[in-house]
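Notes from hallway chat w/ T.B., transcribed later so I don't forget. T.B. wanted the structure written out for a chain they're using in a teaching module, and asked if we could keep both sequence and structure tokens in one place. Agreed to drop them here.
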Amino acid sequence: MKSITGPALENVMNDNVRLIPSKFKNTYNHWMSNVRDWCISRQLWWGHRIPAWYAPDGSFAVAKTQEEAFSILQSQITGLKPADLKQDDDVLDTWFSSWLWPMAVFDTSIFTHPQDNKGNEDLNYYYPTNDLVTAPEILFFWVARMIIAGYHTAEKNPLPMSTSRELFATSKEEKCRSPWGTRPTRWN
């Protein structure tokens, strides 16, 4: 983990990626300095499915498609048929999915050889982004993963600035959320 999180920590601490307010640098530093492996899968019915394909004997291949997985495994397993392969049922954790934006949205080929890939027109236009406004409680779960992925896969600073703040609060300084009946009702 340290090898892929190192650039994300270094670039926040030296302000290449600015966290606003800057007090969140201490929290970010603590999380990233003590980072551990995390589970990236969930047993949900929606999301990005894990691209792992399993053969009946337990062998597996990580591939974009069943056909690609079959071509990897057929030389290892005698008599294997494409229909024998089963894709992993799990999906990527929601927080891990933030890792995939924007490469998965705009140019998946960046994952193959990032050092040789110049990106397509959309990726180059939208990535890196300028600013991210988010809530402080997802700084590590979402923002940190976007920063890690930016430096690891695209070798770029993914967002020069991230602003963390409560978007709306009640007069009692509680978050506004529809399920709690505290959502704003008028925009005056």
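Follow-up for T.B.: The first strand starts at residue 18 and ends at 20. Might be a good example for the class.
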